[in-house]
Amino acid sequence: MPYLPSYGGYVRYLVGILLTVLIGRQAIVSLQRYLDRQKAAEALPDSQRRRTLSYDVALARLDKGVCPGCERPVDLKDPSRDFCPHCGIGLFNHCGACSARKSAFSRFCHACGTQASPENSEMA
After folding, report:
1. pTM listed for this prediction
2. Which has more confidence, 53 or 93?
3. Residue of 82, 100, 92, 84 lying closest to 120 (CA atoms)
């Protein structure tokens, strides 16, 4: 019956629009959940946040020049910067034995090799 209209093209467009809306909505909801988790993590005390980060993940993020806590860029070469300006997590502290400035996530002092004390580094 050639006089009946074909709805095939319209159905495809409608399905495409619906899928785009549903996937976009799911992406927005997932991003909101992620941001809520990040805000909750940033509200925790510094020592507790350091405990939740794995040692390898923290060092990998520091190597990339980002904060291990909030994953925002941080200038790690600035000797006066001991804390992340975005989330406040401690990035550097001082060795208890030789007072050298070291990464707060390091298990040992790079200057003298002394194991980090538990109150300075929660990364056991």
Report:
1. 0.55
2. 93
3. 92
- Token match 């990339």: residue? 64
Domain count for the chain: 2
Task: Please state, in angstroms and rounded to a whole number, the distance separating the CA atoms of residues 110 and 84.
Answer: 21
31 and 51, same domain (yes or no): no
- Provide the residue type at 48 as one letter: Q
Do residues 78 and 64 share a domain?
yes
Q: From CA 95, how far away is CA 124, in angstroms rounded?
A: 16
User: Which structural domain range is residue 122 located in?
Assistant: 45-124
Same structural domain, 10 and 62: no
With left for phi above 0 and alpha for psi between -120 and 50, is residue 99 left, alpha or beta? left
Both 4 and 61 in a single domain? no
Q: Grade residue 22 by pLDDT with cuts at 50, 70 and 90.
A: very high
